[in-house]
Queue: 2 jobs
Job 1
Amino acid sequence: MSKTALVVDDSPTMRQMVTLTLTNAGFTVVEAEHGKDAVAKVAGGPKMDIVVTDLNMPEMDGISLIKELRKMAAFKFTPILMLTTESAAEKKQAGKEAGATGWIVKPFNPEVMLKIIAKVLPA
Amino acid sequence: MSNDFAQFQDAFFEEAGDHLSVVEDGLLALEQNPEDLDLLNKIFRSAHSIKGTSGMFGFNAVAQFTHKMETLLDLLRNGQKVVTPEIADLLLKSTDCLKTLIDAAKSASPVDDETVQRLTVELASASDLTVKAKVEDGPSGGTTGTGTAADGRSQSPAPSPSRHFSIAWTPPEWIFQRGLDPLQIFKELANLGTLSQVAVDTSKLPELVAMDPEKCYLAWTMKLETAKDRQVVDAVFEFVREDSVLTITEEVKGKELGLRGEERLSSPEPSASPHPSPLTPHALSLTPDGIEGEPKPLGEILVETGIVSRETLDHALAQQKRVGQILVEQHAVTPQQVEQALQKQRQQESASQSKKTDTASIRVDTDKIDKLINLVGELVITQSMLSDLGSRFEMSQISVLLERMAQLERNTREIQERVMSIRMLPIGTAFSRFPRLVRDLSAKAGKKIQLVLSGEETELDKTVIESIGDPLTHLVRNSADHGLEPPEERLDNNKPELGTIRLNAFHEGGNICITVEDDGRGLNRDKILAKAVKQGLISENDKLTDDQIWPLIFKPGFSTAEKVTDVSGRGVGMDVVKRNIEALSGTVSIKTALGKGTTFTLKLPLTLAIIEGMTVRVGKETYIVPLLSILESIQPKAGAIKTVVGKGELINVRSTYLPMMRLYEVFALEPEYTDPNKSILLILETEGERVAVMVDEIIGQQQVVIKSMEQNFRKVDGVAGATILSDGTVGFILDVRGLIEIARRGAPVAA
């Protein structure tokens, strides 16, 4: 059974790059354009092994998405990684308070991303 | 960056282009509504996306510059700064600069460093940020990059066989609610070396009734023996460090190291620290903006820290071997296999390079593609129905055959339309530059101008859109500069102070019309006439109608002389406009009313690949005349044709003499009629010049697909291209410009 990942980013280029990195590592990826799209795609649907989300997005931003996901039973303990260029500590803090597991800094290196994912992925 | 990502580079440039227009349009709108937070957020997001994605491709100049813009935008959207005209202006200029930076990244060409520097400073000062402040927020953003990337890359400077760490960790209560599990941390630690003496502290565990199963009440102490360096151990706790009570102590044996251990003991990463600062050599290689630079090679670090000398390093480097060589020595592969593999690598490299050279791409709505695929499916069905019918055809089935043929025709036409529509883009992309242009022009000219765009969704061929930008810019500039009056003059004339320029696009038949309309002073008949006489374009006695006068402004050189002070005196570049439009097989017309305004109407074909043509016959040959260039067709009266020495034949059309060409002479054909009174004359016009072309018969109007003569045969004077006619024969498309040239030379080509 391959692992599943939810990738949320409003930039198609960025999204494709994350997806490629994850599919190369054997993940099955569900892509979403923004928070609302993501919630719609996972509501009552598949359980994900990991979520990688951008923070700045239209419709519903990453922080709100994380809060929404944490409210859902299927995502209560799922690792959620923020994909961020935010250098400001408060943004990271806000993410953590919302329930983010950790973060990946953009621009990312695929190896680093996979390493971080391995770090938080439940066995 | 990973080679896998190179494939997304084109997509990035396209996306960046979209983001740039969002930023630019947004900023222009923001000037009108400085309070609009949604707008600011939208602009911020686009800038942010450019920053994040450009970094992925190593376009650091783009990323760093966007970061500066983003910092200012962030202050604006947080309400820490107010949008002033100066700030809007600065951001607009920065957007231009960013555009050039992105273009430079695209073509790998150098950039105007001075502008970048100047704007960087301006942005920083507008953000009230000193450079120092930025250094601060840099490394904290890069913690992930540093921490996790640190292992493997910047191994401990001094290779020590094993270190002993003593770790005491109290995770935050809510660790599970963030999807973290202490077990994972232990596993990761165990992977680093030997984890021992793990002891759990259950003292905080409440009574069972008071216990929340989703909370963590435990704390641990443990010992770790590892060859890895402290940063690697630190990195394991990266996501929880700031919220945990964590002490990592390096247990040491030597006295000297004891000091170091003490030092570390005293900084157990307090949980309140907003800026964890892992000052590894790697962290130092971060640029002040938190954008990761290239990590230094191991050797460089060793030399810098004084562990090895430069000579030792060079010597060691000299001994390095290529992978292929090592494998050959180990008899794992043969030298030939290595050579083959290398050859393959070179091929792939050159292939990827050649792929890079300007692949013009087009983004197509998946909807369009789906419909096309659907239609192709229908075509296949029709084809199989026809071939089925053909295999056992009887004359009684003729009606079925006709029906299926009609179906085939319908399929083909629809597919043609759909395929054409793939190249079609909304003209909005060509219009998008004008809000900015008009804003700048109105500021420069001290006029109040509003721009009204409509019909942006009208679609036309990508090539046409790309070529239409410059002529349109000329027209808009002209309207702003000269069409519209200064505010005082407008008020004096009972007009609203605010001048309006309207850009509209719409379909008309097989053409697209674009109008540039202003409510300014209109063209002045007398001034134009006076100028035209002065320029020697007409003589004083010429009696011209309005429709003949207005096109005079398209004459080359018209009005260049007088208004020296103006950036673009009315008329400058107008000949270029007309030439450009005609190069696209289009036409320009003018409607104007004194004191009320001027409208320029551009009429363009939807695509350059297909033209609307009139098929004509000369003898047994069929020619196609572009419909747009046909003014009228006449049957000349006897005596209307005169022969003038040195000018050839002229025909009198409503008291204007036009040169007349007998097409059969030009192409050396055997015509049906040699008497002009029996044949038909087509009056053709291009670039304001007219010619009468004599043909035997007009057959009818039809769309033809242009095939290049140069690509399939060679250039022939007077022929613009060829096409395949309905009976399968080749027909030539006349080049009106070329025919006028031939008429002027007066020599038939006699092919």
Note: The two ends of chain A are 13 Å apart (CA to CA).
Job 2
Amino acid sequence: MLDPLDRKLLRDLSRMKGQVVAVSLVMACGLAMMIMTRSLILTLESTRSTYYQKNAMADVFATLKRAPLSAAERLKTLPGVAGVETRVVVDVTIDLPGLSEPATGRLVSLPEDGGPQKLNRVFLRTGRFPRPDERREVVLGESFAKANGLKPGDALAAVINGRREELRICGIGLSPEFVFEARAGETLPDHKRFSVIWMNYRALAVAYNMDGAFNDVCLDLAPGAVAGPVIEEMDRLLATYGAGGAYTRKDQPSAQRIDDELRVLHSLSFAYPIVFLSVAAFMVNAVLSRIVRLQREQIAQMKALGYSSRQVGVHYLKFVLVIGVLGTAIGGVAGHRMGEGLLVIYTDFFRFPELVYRMDWSSLGTALGVSLGASALGVMSVVRQAVKLPPAEAMRPEPPADFKPSLFERIGLTRFFSPAFRMALRNIERRPWQAVFTSCGLALATGLMVLPGAMSDSIDHLLTFQWNSQQRQDVSVFLTEPASGKGFHDLEHLPGVIRAEPIRSVPARLRFAHHHRKLSITGIPRGADLNRLLDKDERPIVLPEEGLFMSAKLAEILGARIGDEVRVEVLDGRRPVVNLPIRGLVEDFAGVAAYMDIEALRRVLKEGDTVNGAYLAVDHSQWDRFMREVKDTPRAAFVMVKRDQLAAFRETTGKNIGIIRTLYFILATIVAFGVVYNSARIALSERSRELATLRVVGFRLPEVRAVLVGELALLVLAALPFGLLFGRGLALFIMSSFSTETVRLPILIRPSTYSIAVLVVLTASAASFAVVSRMLGKLDLVGVLKARD
Amino acid sequence: MQQTSSSPRAASSGTVFQARGLRKVYHTGELDVVALHGVDLELNAGELVCLLGASGSGKSTLLNILGGLDVPSSGELVYKGWALDGAEEETLTLFRRNCVGFVFQFYNLIPSLTARENVALITGISRDPMSPEEALEMVGLEKRMDHFPSQLSGGEQQRVAIARAIAKRPEVLLCDEPTGALDVTTGITVLEAVERINRELGTLTVIITHNAVMAEMADRVLHLSDGRIISSHRNETRLPASELKW
């Protein structure tokens, strides 16, 4: 048996169901975002941790030129080291019949003894590992196999150390080391053109003169061991073998990408939903204030009948509870479904044996707590005021509201205003806080519209900037190892090459104060026209004759500024150590890089005209010929075709960002509509007497509508500029939290984005006004006028 | 106001309203409530008519139909030769705008507008209004014109409502329990204002009341019961409002 007050609650709620739904939906949008992102975080984190643990992801990684296997024995004795796995890792060109351009394969050797891998264990999806004596059998990376329709039993051709070899696929697998599978330095996966391939040690070692040696090593740390000292020891031990410096899992490219993604999700799980929930709290406050004012006499009656202030207070708080529970239920279901849907996107980027969606139930509880807390806080004062009133006083009709001429009128502008406009101004001035709350809600709703647009503006800008302004080459070719001027000459004379610019890159550690970063310093010609360096105004940078240009992000990481001298420890060749000044910063959006004039870099390295590769502009009529030749160039380790990168981007990231953007856009639209609708309903209900009076004395429906809409329209117009400003701030905040070492979004918001936000809010307003106008038409004029306030 | 039928129907000179067989049925859920059971009525220019009757007798329904706030379910209603029964909403709006003034028990002033502005709302939209100042003077509020409703007493607010109702120089003033929320003294001040308007402007005035004493200030008293006019009585002399006592 329901308590009579609860029965009243249910009936009151059913009478105002439109508003209950509007507020619950807004709340649900915020909660759905929160639950979706929290659940994605939980899913990714738990899946990663299980995968890393089960498949023994290494803690420390290092690459080197060539070290005898005995060096590994010494590594094992280092304090803190629990396990060592040595490998031969080389990049080779793969020739697929269906692909005009060459793909890149990263060949990773399996243990020499044919036993199971100790670290970074391959998860075999289908097939088997190569037989110990088989030289041609390989396990192929799953995403590449899928993208190219390859399966166990199929063959593929690779150019291994200059010789074309046929490899047979015996298994399809994946590894915790390559959850994010991309070429070194690439920020986006290109599953069609890059794969990790595992093969027997002997087959690979023999081909690259690595028999009894290795060029890549990873370590497992003992429980409680600290990475720092181990890395120092390791670097000291491996320095003579051309090691490029060891790094921990934190800097491992694949692990780093997952961390970056989680960081983005963390910021989305917080800032964006908070705004939705604030809007919902404003709305709950507005709705409940209205109910309490309307039910002034009922409150008096309840108290006269003997209900305590507490009981009455709790009764009204239950309104909030119902809205909160409804919002949480809708938000929970929607968040769960959106999360499941978005998880598919992650399977494009991250390869796990299994990525099973895990709902973060605790976030549901947090969400409910946060939304109820915020709403209850918003209505507490209203309820307190209601229960404070002595019953006898509350039963008398409320005296007419106290008004005075508005500020504008007091300064003498009255004659410019129509009575309707005066009513609007005075209403706003009488209850400034209500107006402020309504406007805040509207401004927040407007602001929410900016983020989705800003995201696509940034991506558009990034694409034009990166693919049109900055990278003007058609192809980038990287060689298996540094070559002399002849190597460049060969590339320059490939068929169809119109222009070629050499690349010399060398691994180095940059130090400034106590910060350091390991990366490649890239040397390019001073007047480079293909891969250009641009400053933040997109003007080409001419490299100075000495000194460094670096990513603004790198300078930030090092804590250095233009003019500061950084210590450059080259990790290759003669390993020179020099101090070089920072001459300028480059605006780039992926990874961090340092550039030098190629001649200056060669002087530092004390070498002649060595190159690692070249940027090429190719005559498109000769494209096929060019590609055929490149595929057969033994020294080409990998070839990046700009057009393919762009297509891959559009297919994956572009599409996914589109989905996310649409989702945010829909949520923001719901909020915009909900807020305006709620305000319009409240205005209609609060002013029904005035409006009925106007109808009775002979105002036409459109004239009365103008009075109703006037005040709201003023609030909408006042809210728009603040909304856009707020939206800009919110977009900047969220997008700058996307800014990681691996990828950054340029922050740019086009006027069209603001226009769309304004347009959506105005459309939502027009639609809400249309709904309440219809209700206004149905107003029972006599009934309203005869009722006591 | 627009002509709603092809030609004005015949009406005696000085007749403002002519009603024949007015019926009004409200459909509430499964029940049909008959509020008016075929009312025949003539109301003339300059008359002050009192409608008396218990709650639910149909007097408010009749007043609302006369004022164009509602339409009869059947029967004829002619206002100065123009048919109001079955008229469109737009026609009724124009009728209310130009021909009728309403006064309700609750004053229904716009709280955000001053007395003068409340009246100006009407003078802004009607054809031949008097100035707000003139209307407020007629109800004795010339000194309170720039006060907001919250700064006025109940009687003063009701007088503003009357000024608002008559500022358009309506042919008809319809008052639904105009003193219902007021004490005796204040109520009499309000009735004096109504009386003055009826006398000076010659406005047909219809007052609904529970208070039989008020009937003494009327030219004619109609008793309603169960949706019918059960008696009609003409006063030999009208008692000035100031002499009413209850």
Note: Chain A has a mean pLDDT of 86.
